[in-house]
Amino acid sequence: MDNEPSTISYKMNRLNQLFAAKKENLLSIYYTAGYPALNTTVDIAEALEKAGADFLEVGFPYSDPVADGPTIQHSSEQALENGMTLNLLFEELTELRKRVSIPILLMGYFNPILQYGIERFCTKAAELGVDGIIVPDLPMYEYEALYSEHFIKNNLSNIFLVTPQTSPDRIRKIDELSNAFIYLLSSSSITGGSLQLTDNIKDYYKRIKAMELKNPTIIGFGITDSSSFKKACEYANGAIVGSKFVKLLAEENYMEKIPGFIEAIKF
Amino acid sequence: MKYGVNEHGYYGDFGGAYIPEMLYPNVEELRQQYLTILNDASFKAEFDDLLKNYVGRPSPLYHAKRYSEKYGANIFFKREDLNHTGSHKINNAIGQILLAKRLGKKRIIAETGAGQHGVATATVCALMGIECVVYMGEIDMARQAPNVSRMKMLGATVRPASSGSKTLKDATNEALRDWIANPVDTHYIIGSVVGPYPYPDMVARFQSIISEETKKQLVEHTGKQLPEYVLACVGGGSNAMGMFYHFLDDESVKLVAVEAAGKGVDSGHSAATTFLGQEGVLHGSRTILMQTPDGQVVEPYSISAGLDYPGIGPQHAHLYKINRAQYVSVTDDEAMNAGLLCSQMEGIIPAIESSHALAQLEHMTFKATDNVVICLSGRGDKDLDTYIKHFNY
Predict the structure, then answer these.
(1) What is the mean pLDDT of residues A57-71?
(2) How far apart are the first and last CA of chain B?
């Protein structure tokens, strides 16, 4: 492996353009493709863009989502029952760039990508206008040694997670390998908890801020409302809402409720 | 060791540590410390003492005379069924609880399928006075109720895994989630040679006592250290890895791993991973697992709750791929018949898991001089209900 900074090989993608233009209060929304029904992925993305979300994470479901809490587990199970697969998701995303212009990341576990073929997956995602990938169970060593070339070649940003337990050395290394943003977990937990701003957690955010990383940081896990969003944005460039939005998708007429949901968090 | 793990945790193409960042510090702490701790003289002394005086080791290597006559070879049973708590699982549980103590952990979590590993973990936690939480699939809790009661009596908390298919793989997911939420004070005692590196190597080392003893005992029985064949059943593969471990580099020894074919490899109700699986990532390691073309993990089936795991340990995947060991499968019916045969010819009621290894004898031909070792990984007490129903006793 050569150790040249990976940024050199990338062109600016939509994520880089967004972060260059907007430095604070960025709002990202996560939802699971195929939930609550098939053929909703682009409709939901379009509605979220109109409502004011800055970028989106589209989850593809997996049978064994170890990093997820009950809400996203349930959405994944339901999506799989509905028949969602990576092939189907890519079909649904054919229209994506005709209707949606904000950055889109795909988020999911490694095994479905491995079966699809990592090179084929990256090529296909890039072709459809996807800007980045978040794979919680693809560790740094394997990414760097085995797979980074496919991401770089396709101008896809790979997003790493950082927790309160991640060591400073490792954070530096993650910063080096990243070229869009770093995903800060609000605690060491699975998805769907609540934001606990204990002194320890505040110290962790401050410690990271003081490191002056080259990549922007976005806080996720436990962001559920305007108050937690604003608190998170004090310490990072923005925040991600996941489980709370997935819960909205379980309600009737959820499409009509999307603008109000985003407004309530942002303003 | 030629077939051992490399510095990045790989056995050939398999292994590694495919874990979310939330688990990285926990696993990294283990990776940095496990070899130092395992090689420490005081650790070894305490481990050996407990294996001898608490578990009852060495377990006998029994020359099964009537079996030998029937199959036309010298058949030996490595009697892991005689261990305290009734199976080989206690070897690993003892090793990991001693390790956890040295890491300063105050709380233990574990997953269990049939309940044998849960019971072994609850046992060593009682022994050390450490809090114990065992995750078990809701469906497994119902079909292995006596083991649930045993764990509770030993002071453990048994938490139902009610997600996904509600069996072993989901219990493992729940244990991993617990570990994510409790990264500092908790150690996760994984029960098989699966999971992220260093678990497959660490568990194999704790179970390697099985083959270490066997080599010495074979000399007493046969005058030779090496047998012609070694057989063991494989779910995740911990008794097999322990049974193979010290024979891996002795290329003349034929290693046979027996998977559970369930109702038949092609029946749609099977756990024969090497026959039905593809390469992929499960529970933190790259291995062979049963999955859909879309990469979703498939729920396996076997009459034996200890063998219905959708993957195998990464070292097994490697031994399979490079043909160092032969992977075969036997059906529910074949295993049940072998369990009955062993009961009535040798006076030993084996665990249904171990009956799978015994059943493979029917498919093999031997020379009269061949020495054959079978790992009798567990006793059949826990399976009496299943045997009784199957044979209408």
Answers:
(1) 95
(2) 48
